[in-house]
């Protein structure tokens, strides 16, 4: 039940079918005997805006984290800005909390309009970014914004996903539950208790904010009932590296400097050095990354998890949600999922009305205990075409099976086929850091020196991939270093969201719509958006990259011996994509994917041994579905060149908006 407290360390399981049936039978039996008066007293199904937002309590406290990250001899306090309805406390009733813990409240802003916190002359919060307070405070929730350590009005240093980041938010949840200490000022001695809180907290946030929610959930903290991570990181190593291949030319020390306050900048040089020293650009996995890997602690998660992800997010890539989702599923954690065609975009800006309604019902169910049925609805919502959504009862769908497809040589060098039969032979290409996946895909049917492509014949029926793929490559390199890319492509005409555009699939309009109540200092009205689309001849829908020198272990890369074969399995980004009848499925193997990974120190020629190369894809219906989709297909040359989106620009080095 939503109101129950699960045993420590155990996740709340999803309702099983027999429990649902028993509940329905009991409800029917009770209904037969209920009087009209009793029926009128049925529990509510939706929180209503019955409290005043204009007269809400607005206050700030500083919670002691118990850490001294900045080394000033006193434990760090993080600033917590609170907006809560006044009426429940006056009536002796307590309320749940919706929390967004962020490093961006002063440096960069939140949401499509880059809102920052604003304060009155007494230092109390006036403008809280995003719509959460405007909408949920009148409905009986407290909404709080936490400044992570080292940012805005908090003490300490930014440690980019480490102990201080996570403790910043965890300590606040402990305070809400009566297990930590807060003060009325940053340096004073007067303490304050959260007597108005019922101890139930839901965390929400996009990107770094959602990442903190993942990390806090992985501590198993008492009182955290649900998290809603939007385009969030699950392991910080995978934000900076792809199996040894560097994704950026900077590291977490640069990111800390981007968001930290002036006070933190003056006292956190030692923390910057620790971050730099612990994250060498070699791509080796170090203890710093172990501390920032939340996936390994999925067994501690007791909160439900509502994951939201753009399938074309090239900032926080979908590998993050895929590995987190799989780890949570293995632990039986209650889950829900939204997958859009966008890049790094908040659902408020691509499906606003449905998002607000769904989030409202989710929080009502998880934090207020309302039996509104959201836990019995389909697990996943997936955007199949711009603004066209489908649902999936479970995700991945029942009947999804990992299916092995194998490349084979074709009639032209570097232009092969993709099927289920093993093949022999080799394909050779030379790494060209000037080219990207769009260049490779546009010339999938041509011999080019920079890639090897393998394509099915046009499908005779739809084929759906749902989940995470792997591509195993056996290759020799002509130099001591080499990077590999593996890319899955849907070859065929379509209209898709233009995720390569600066706004990653949306256009911001001039009109505003309002979501909740406003005050003079905090408007509930936001600029509307619309889908920005493009007509294409192909769609890259999943990618993976690796440094071949890390073939044996992520712990330490080694120089390659030219001419020696190495076998490495690349993990591709999770997705849910349907390749329509008449389209082709393609696998491309190449070197540097320009602006998505950095090039190696050398420019190798790479020879791929086809007998040791295979793609393991999550096909709905498994090998039988692939056989049916390719039965009777006639192999005809793929046209070229093909029209696609512009090449991805230099990757954003900040996991923000």
UniProtKB/TrEMBL annotation:
Q: Which GO terms describe its molecular function?
A: dipeptidyl-peptidase activity
**Region of interest (Disordered), ranges:** 390-433, 631-657
For this UniProt entry, which residues form the secretion signal? 1-41
Compositionally biased spans, kind Low complexity: 407-422
Keyword list, A-Z: Hydrolase, Signal
Tell me which residues make up the Xaa-Pro dipeptidyl-peptidase C-terminal domain. 360-616
Q: Kindly indicate whether the keyword Signal belongs to this entry.
A: yes
User: Which domain of life does this protein belong to?
Assistant: Bacteria
Q: What is this protein called?
A: X-Pro dipeptidyl-peptidase
Give the lineage. Bacteria, Bacillati, Actinomycetota, Actinomycetes, Kitasatosporales
């Amino acid at each position: 039940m939503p109101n129950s407290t699960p045993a420590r360390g155990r996740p709340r399981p999803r309702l099983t079918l027999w429990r649902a049936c028993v509940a329905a039978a009991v409800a029917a039996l009770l209904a037969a005997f209920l009087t009209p008066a009793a029926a009128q007293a049925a529990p509510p199904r939706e929180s209503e805006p019955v409290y005043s937002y204009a007269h809400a309590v607005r206050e700030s406290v500083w919670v002691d984290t118990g850490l001294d990250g900045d080394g000033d001899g006193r434990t760090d306090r993080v600033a917590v800005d609170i907006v809560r309805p006044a009426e429940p406390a006056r009536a002796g009733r307590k309320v749940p909390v919706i929390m967004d813990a962020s490093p961006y409240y002063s440096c960069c802003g939140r949401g499509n309009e880059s809102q920052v916190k604003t304060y009155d002359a007494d230092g109390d919060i006036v403008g809280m970014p995003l719509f959460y307070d405007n909408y949920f405070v009148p409905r009986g929730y407290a909404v709080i914004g936490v400044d992570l350590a080292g940012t805005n009005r908090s003490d300490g240093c930014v440690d980019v996903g480490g102990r201080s980041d996570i403790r910043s938010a965890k300590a606040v949840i402990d305070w809400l539950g009566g297990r930590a200490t807060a003060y009325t000022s940053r340096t004073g001695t007067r303490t304050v208790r959260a007597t108005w809180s019922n101890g139930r907290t839901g965390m929400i946030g996009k990107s770094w904010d959602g990442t903190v929610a993942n990390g806090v959930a992985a501590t198993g903290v008492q009182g955290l009932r649900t998290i809603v991570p939007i385009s969030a990181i699950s392991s910080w190593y995978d934000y900076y590296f792809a199996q040894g291949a560097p994704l950026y030319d900077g590291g977490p020390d640069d990111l800390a400097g981007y968001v930290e306050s002036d006070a933190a900048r003056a006292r956190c040089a030692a923390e910057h050095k620790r971050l730099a020293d612990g994250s060498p650009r070699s791509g080796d996995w170090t203890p710093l990354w172990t501390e920032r890997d939340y996936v390994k602690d999925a067994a501690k998660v007791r909160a439900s998890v509502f994951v939201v992800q753009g399938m074309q997010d090239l900032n926080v890539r979908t590998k993050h949600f895929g590995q987190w989702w799989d780890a949570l599923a293995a632990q039986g954690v209650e889950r829900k999922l939204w997958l859009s065609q966008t890049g790094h975009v908040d659902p408020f800006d691509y499906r606003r009305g449905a998002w607000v309604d769904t989030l409202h019902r989710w929080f009502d169910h998880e934090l207020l205990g309302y039996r509104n049925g959201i836990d019995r609805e389909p697990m996943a919502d997936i955007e199949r075409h711009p603004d066209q959504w489908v649902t999936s009862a479970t995700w991945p769908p029942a009947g999804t099976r990992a299916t092995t497809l194998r490349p084979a040589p074709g009639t032209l060098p570097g232009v092969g086929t993709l099927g289920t039969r093993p093949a022999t032979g080799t394909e050779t290409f030379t790494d060209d850091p000037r080219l990207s996946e769009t260049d490779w895909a546009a010339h999938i049917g041509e011999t080019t020196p920079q890639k090897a492509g393998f394509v099915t014949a046009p499908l005779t029926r739809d084929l759906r991939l749902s989940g995470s793929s792997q591509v195993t490559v056996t290759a020799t390199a002509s130099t001591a270093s080499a990077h590999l890319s593996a890319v899955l492509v849907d070859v065929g005409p379509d209209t898709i969201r233009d995720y390569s555009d600066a706004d990653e699939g949306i256009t911001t309009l001039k009109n505003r719509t309002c979501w909740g109540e406003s005050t003079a200092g905090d408007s509930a009205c936001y600029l509307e958006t619309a889908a920005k689309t493009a007509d294409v001849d192909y769609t890259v829908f999943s990618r993976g990259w690796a440094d071949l020198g890390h073939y044996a272990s992520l712990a330490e890369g080694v120089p390659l011996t030219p001419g020696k074969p190495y076998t490495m399995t690349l993990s591709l980004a999770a997705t849910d994509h349907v390749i329509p009848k008449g389209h082709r499925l393609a696998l491309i193997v190449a070197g540097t994917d320009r602006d998505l990974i950095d090039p190696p120190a050398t420019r190798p020629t790479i020879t791929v041994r086809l007998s040791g190369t295979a793609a393991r894809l999550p096909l709905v219906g498994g090998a039988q579905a692939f056989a049916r989709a390719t039965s009777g297909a006639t192999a005809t040359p793929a046209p070229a060149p093909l029209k696609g989106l512009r090449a991805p620009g230099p990757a954003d080095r900040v996991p923000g908006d």
